[in-house]
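My main concern about presentation is that the manuscript never shows what a single data entry looks like. For the editor and my fellow referees, an illustration may be useful. For illustration, here is how one protein appears when written out as sequence plus structure tokens:

***
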Amino acid sequence: MNNSEKILISIGIPVFNGSKTLTKTLESIKKQTFKKYEVLISDNHSSDDTGKIAQEFCRKDKRFKYIRQRKNIGPIENFLFLVKNTSGEYFTWLSDDDYYENDNLLEELFRPNCKGIRLCFSECKKNYA
């Protein structure tokens, strides 16, 4: 995405010690057919390899941004930090242990005929595997 293209969707990922699941989450975003997004990963002062994984994605794709909190600010403040520090027209959270199963999910959520809608949900599956 070049600088002249507007970011339409901001994806906020609050994470604390998510190294076991974060790669799958970030890969699922990167595979999306819809490309006008940014990803902000807010690391709540993890003690595992979360930072290393996030920074590797940032190095390869400028739409991914990583911020490590100086201390653990708690889950609610970490969620709010993401909302306050993104620039997309629309916002969604994605947990470090969740992922997009379909490569076109963001595209489906951002259909032109949905203009004016304030809240949109996709189908969700719970997998206990």
